[in-house]
Design brief:
Chain A: Pfam families: DUF6182 (PF19680). Chain A: InterPro entries: DUF6182. The structure holds two protein chains of two kinds. Chain A is built from seven helices and ten strands. In chain A, strands 3-4-1-2-5 form a five-stranded mixed β-sheet. Chain A is globular and about 50 Å long. The N and C termini of chain A lie far apart (35 Å). Chain B is of the alpha/beta class. Chain B has one domain: Rossmann fold (3-Layer(aba) Sandwich). Chain B has a four-stranded parallel β-sheet with strand order 2-1-6-7, with helices on both faces. In chain B, α2 packs across α12, α4 crosses α6 and α12 crosses α13. The longest helix of chain B has 17 residues. The chains are: A alpha+beta, B alpha/beta. Chains A and B meet through α4 of A and loops of B.
Chain lengths: 232, 380
């Protein structure tokens, strides 16, 4: 695919994502989730993101989806935070906790106690290919995700992967019992990733496309997820 | 407000088990002249130590290195070396050095982390910039006139713990959020106390002023020591956290938070100047014809007995002069021995230490009793 073609495919996929999110209901106040980060343990993070999202009441899930799964990552320790600010979900290893989503000032007190997570080191320092099983349902289905790492810091990696998994879960692409495999590559320019951008596959694909950190005038594919569920 | 944050049970425990009181004031960076706020802190500290030591073993913890191991100090020293390399500071006035400090904050550029790190390394090895040493020498003379013994202003006192030891000790108690491996800062986690997390080490690896304080204090914690943390109200939030952390390590603590002394209605940071005419050097020079003992007593009456912990009143040189005149009259009579001295002090020590305010404000009545020889020793 030539560069203009690739750019056009990214624009089309990003537009489809916006339509998908805003199509979930009328516009309303922004709903924001806070993730408290003590440590970055990618399998615990990935599973936590999915389980948090699966546990959302439908109306909250829709509100968060309309807000494009907006999420704030804050440095803190779930162990000290949750006694004052109950979490909706805590990772099994207590490396992270999820709060909200909330509208307006709902998470203001929590935000005031903590500081924005900062992790500019290369994501490659913490990532490795991984596989997590979402508990609680019939096993067998495998969801394949790939994340870009070149020029991506730890903090941005969390943002990209959280959007990818959160939206995919809200759209039903990830369900209980599924295995989610996450692979990594410097750039997602492989044939499978490119093919996933085709409009005809939008129903089974989730993308994370946003401005290229290194070249803000361009869009870049930071994550792609495919969930081709056999009809039952 | 939280001038005594200690709760009653801790208070009672401290009184029954304390065998030593440790007075630990925030040290002052030798970058500017001593202003009324500094003088207040020095005199409160002096009285805490001197009066409490009459009823209990008491020690002052003063390590200038905790002030030198700060960006505030090292960045200024790096600035001096840039704009005045090789200058002879040994005869410079404190006003001239202080003006350079104000100028640095107004126009200077902040050194990069590597340049600062080189200064931190030298300070760790005991080095004091000649301009800082000059300032400390001037302070020593001014403090001597005020009756404050040199706490070791230029003494070479390595900090007992390094940064790694502090972080490890905090981590063991679940008080650390260390994101340095992700390129982020390391934070002290006070959320369990309802306090915001506080950065200790920045993303570029520079520790802030709380780190040398913890390096100095944490290894000193013993179950039978009561720590009096003397700070000014401007950094109360940080010191509330330090207080809780020391308690977490098993220390009994009291926070003595002192309000800053406004000058002409304004509480300003020293880095903006505005101290001309009200520095300790200025005050010593205008203390009039009264003797040095009257000056010492008068300054204590004003800064401790009249201002108390948190008077919002602007600095009043006229009240200082009046207090010195009163002191001269109080010192006029013969000094007798007071057999009830210790009992009197114990009655002023409700929180495990003699309260300097209660000690001095009691002397401000219309016709104060003649000062005993023991009180003269404490107050002059």
């Amino acid at each position: 695919m030539s560069r203009p073609d690739a750019d056009a495919a990214l624009v089309a996929a990003a537009t489809a994502r916006l339509a998908s999110a805003s199509g979930t209901g009328p516009a309303a106040a922004v709903a924001e989730t806070v993730v408290v980060v003590a440590d970055v343990v990618p399998p615990a993070f990935a599973l936590g993101a999915v389980e948090f999202t699966l546990g959302l009441p439908e109306d909250l899930g829709r509100a968060w989806h309309r807000s494009f799964t907006r999420t704030l990552f804050l440095a803190g320790q779930p162990g000290t935070v949750v006694s004052r600010h109950p979490a909706r979900h805590v990772a099994a290893d207590a490396s992270m906790s999820w709060h909200g989503p909330a509208q307006g000032d709902g998470l203001r007190d929590l935000s005031r106690l903590l500081r924005a997570f900062r992790g500019p080191r290369p994501a490659a320092s913490v990532t490795r290919d991984l596989s997590v099983l979402v508990p609680g349902g019939p096993a067998g289905h495998v969801v394949e995700a790939r994340m870009a790492t070149a020029g991506v810091g730890v903090g941005d990696y969390l943002v990209h992967l959280h959007h990818l998994l959160g939206e995919a879960t809200l759209r039903g692409l990830i369900r209980r019992g599924d295995t989610v495999r996450i692979g990594h590559a410097p750039h997602l320019d492989d044939p499978d990733s490119r093919a996933a951008l085709e409009p005809g596959r939008a129903d089974v694909v989730q993308t994370r496309i946003t401005h290229d950190h290194a070249d803000p005038g361009r869009l870049r594919l930071y994550g792609v997820l495919v969930s081709e569920r056999r009809r039952s | 407000m939280a001038e005594h944050v200690a709760l009653a049970p801790r208070c009672a425990a401290a009184q029954s088990t304390t065998h030593e009181v440790v007075v630990a004031p925030v040290t002052i960076t030798p970058t500017k002249p001593l202003t009324p706020t500094h003088v207040k802190g020095l005199l409160w500290t002096d009285l805490l130590v001197r009066a409490t030591s009459d009823i209990m073993p008491t020690r002052l913890m003063w390590n200038s290195r905790t002030a030198h191991l700060t960006t505030q100090t090292t960045a200024f020293w790096a600035h001096l070396d840039r704009v005045a390399p090789g200058a002879d500071w040994s005869a410079e006035s404190e006003a001239a050095i202080g003006e350079r400090y104000v100028d640095f904050h107004a126009h200077g550029t902040r050194p990069d982390p590597d340049e600062l790190a080189a200064y931190f390394t030298r300070v760790e090895a005991g080095w004091i910039h000649p301009a800082g040493r000059r300032m400390l020498d001037l302070w020593r003379d001014q403090m001597a006139r005020l009756g404050i013994a040199d706490p070791g202003l230029t003494a070479d006192r390595p900090l007992p713990w390094d940064t790694g030891q502090v972080l490890a000790a905090l981590d063991r108690r679940g008080l650390l959020i260390d994101h340095r491996r992700f390129g982020g800062p390391a934070y002290l986690d006070g959320v369990r106390y309802g306090m915001p997390i506080r950065r200790l080490v920045s993303a570029d690896g520079t520790a802030n002023y709380l780190m040398p304080i913890l390096r100095d204090l944490l290894p000193m914690v013993r179950p039978d020591r009561l720590f009096l943390l003397v700070c000014d109200a401007g950094i109360l939030a940080d010191y509330l956290l330090v207080d809780r952390v020391l308690a977490e390590f098993g220390a009994a603590t009291r926070l003595v938070a002192l309000g800053r002394v406004p000058v002409d209605g304004q509480v300003r940071s020293s880095k903006h100047g505005g101290w001309s005419g009200v520095t300790l050097g200025d005050l010593a020079a205008t203390s009039g014809s009264a003797g040095v003992r009257a000056y010492r007593l008068g300054m204590r009456l004003y800064f401790v007995g009249m201002l108390g912990r948190r008077s919002p009143q602007s600095f009043r040189p006229d009240l200082v002069r009046r207090a010195v005149g009163r002191a001269a009259r109080m010192l006029g009579g013969a000094a007798g021995d007071d057999p009830g001295h210790v009992a009197r002090l114990r009655a002023l020590a409700r929180h495990g230490y003699v309260d300097p305010y209660r000690l001095t404000s009691g002397l401000l009545g219309r016709s104060p009793a003649p000062l005993s020889s023991q009180m003269r020793d404490i107050l002059t």
